[in-house]
Amino acid sequence: MSDTKIPAPYGSWASPITAESLTGAVVSIKEPGTDTDAIYWLEGRPAEKGRSTLIRLKDGVTTELTPNPFDVRTRAHEYGGGSWTARDGVVLVSNGTDGRIYRVSDDGPAPITAEGPWRFADLLIDPHHNRIIAVREDHTLDDIEAINTLVQLELDGPNEDGGQVIVSGTDFVASPALSPDGTMLSWLQWNHPNMPWDGCELWYSEVEEDGTLHNIHHVTGGLTESIVRPRWNNTLLPVFASDRTGWWQLYADRGANGIQPIMAPTEAEFAQPQWVFGMSTWDFTADGRVVCAWNTNGEWHLGRLDVAMTPIHEYDLPFTAISDVHVQQSTDTVIFLGASPTDLGGLVQLDLATGEWQYLRQASAERIDPDYISVPESISWTSEDGSTAYGFYYAPANRDFTGPDDELPPLIVESHGGPTSQTSSTLSLKRQFWTSRGFAILDVNYGGSTGYGRDYRNRLQGTWGIVDVDDCVTGAEYLVDQGLVDPARLAIRGGSAGGFTTLAALTTTQVFAVGVSYFGIGDLEAMARDTHKFESRYLDGLVGPYPEAKQTYIDRSAVHHVDRLEAAMLLLQGLEDKVVPPNQATMMAEAVRQKSLPVAHIEYEGEGHGFRQAATIQHSTLAELAFFARVFVFTPVDDIPAIDIANA
């Protein structure tokens, strides 16, 4: 390598991080968990039509338990999660293809529920009564929304009727948990229009010897208190996370002595919004202590504490993102998913006594030369309403190239999905694909994002399409004022809710020259009328009740304000998307086309809400590059696809 970098236009730099790298080099690892003598996790297989498969590590041997084409997934709440469980060697999985639960043995998966209009999640084995307790989403009646209940199922099948309902009467249920002796059951429940992070309730029930529930009662939580992950330790002490102080902290229910914190109050989050089933930021050790992860200023930490207000013992770890925390009590170790700004990370096992850790499965075996990696800087700025907004800034980085002296780099502003979600500083090959070609990136944790307390989340209540847009716009302007990016080449991109922010920014401001929407929401009214149950009333809080607030929906919907648009637009959409129907992108593309602005609309067969197939991920990325090259006028060295750009 020469000591002198080659000057070349931003966007045109050659990079070893290719579109193929985004799928071929990286293993998607999710939903890890433990049994007494084994560790399990799911691996995504983009090359196998995006399916997920269950992997077991036992006695040093790794085994794939669900061969192709089996797809371990649940479509409950559409986003899924909690799609498998294991206890004492019994392994259960949900099949994404037919929605049935299967019991896995050395002979492969065998169904234990009948075919039917059901989806199951949060699977829980009750060995005391030889049954399964699970969330069931019943789609029997097409003309009304699905019915969510807790059901019990026979562990050996056949469960022809889809199980026996044991908890019902609310719009949603989640997180069933049994005490170790099987005498107590806890769960969460909530009703429209709340989302679980707005407020939900914790309930208990005694479990009789015959398995029936007795003395069912509400414990805590409500319309404005969010409870997360109730669990019972070895002394039958219930512990859960609550945001009653404005931050998700850990509490214990001490019966007659009331609900008490198990830690000193701190401005940190010990839980995440429950977008999917089975999320875990903490777990119990064999002796009843807690191993927990927490988020401070966008970075995650891991530690151990007693349940008696003792200080947290933090482990010295190199990770800035930590999730899916599960203790294997038999070995006194904890597993979790960890990553950092320079390491894609993977599934980690930590010895709780020594603090030593090792990878059980890395997300990628490839090592990326650090000279091609842009390490993000955590930044903050003042937004339109005077609040502080947060994000991560990535400068262009490539060991071989530099930009011309008279040129500043183009900027891509990323708005994450959710919108009650969060971006992190961990290594993403998708971001590095752009920075290693000469783009700068601002990844925004706009108002409404998790990780900065309930007040910050509530900034978006009633203001979606305003606060998020303002935070993205002022973030871009801040970088322009710092002299870091080209004010004439600003782009904004996002998926789902981030796509909504992208489209809203393009039709309410003239800051961005181009926008890219992945399955984004262009018409809030259409979203309110035609989406799945979990999010069907989500907009009540973010925008207002519908149809009472119809005019607000119109005012915030980009499809009605294309007359204000001055930017080019790329729309990417899966045709099997049940969260944001494909007609949203079609309507938006046609409106932009009629405005005579450059627009490309690309649809992908077999893709839903979030692209999973390798060919789709690669093509959509290169299509973005081709679109940016046309608008920002540079020549990529990559072999980019020919895309149809109307009004080009």
Structural features, described:
This protein is an alpha+beta fold and 648 residues long. Helices cover 14% and strands 35% of the residues. It is built from ten helices and 38 strands. The strands form nine sheets. The protein has an eight-stranded mixed beta sheet, sandwiched between helices. A four-stranded antiparallel beta sheet has the order 2-3-4-5, with no helix packed on it. Strand 8 and strand 9 (108-111) form a beta hairpin. Helix 4 (467-481) crosses helix 5. The model has no long low-confidence stretch (mean pLDDT 95).
- Work out the radius of gyration: 24 Å
Strand content: 25-35%
- The CATH class designation of the domain at 6-18 and 368-632 is Alpha Beta
Number of continuous helical runs: 10
Largest sheet: 8 strands, mixed
Q: State the CATH topology of the domain at 6-18 and 368-632.
A: Rossmann fold
Q: For the residues shown, what is the average pLDDT?
A: 95
Helix content: 10-25%
DSSP, total strands:
38
Query: Structural class of the helix and strand makeup?
Result: alpha+beta
Q: How do the helices and strands line up, and which of them pair or pack?
A:
Elements: E1 6-7, H1 21-24, E2 28-34, E3 39-45, E4 51-58, E5 61-64, E6 84-87, E7 90-94, E8 101-105, E9 108-111, E10 118-126, E11 131-138, E12 147-154, E13 164-167, E14 172-178, E15 184-190, E16 201-207, E17 213-221, E18 227-232, E19 238-242, E20 249-253, E21 259-261, E22 282-284, E23 290-296, E24 299-305, E25 313-314, E26 321-328, E27 333-340, E28 343-351, E29 357-362, E30 377-382, E31 388-394, E32 401-402, E33 411-415, H2 429-435, E34 440-445, H3 454-458, H4 467-481, E35 490-495, H5 497-508, E36 514-518, H6 524-529, H7 538-542, H8 550-556, E37 568-574, H9 583-594, E38 599-604, H10 614-632
Parallel strand pairs: 1-32, 33-34, 33-35, 35-36, 36-37, 37-38
Antiparallel strand pairs: 2-3, 3-4, 4-5, 6-7, 7-8, 8-9, 10-11, 11-12, 12-13, 14-15, 15-16, 16-17, 18-19, 19-20, 20-21, 22-23, 23-24, 24-25, 26-27, 27-28, 28-29, 30-31, 31-34
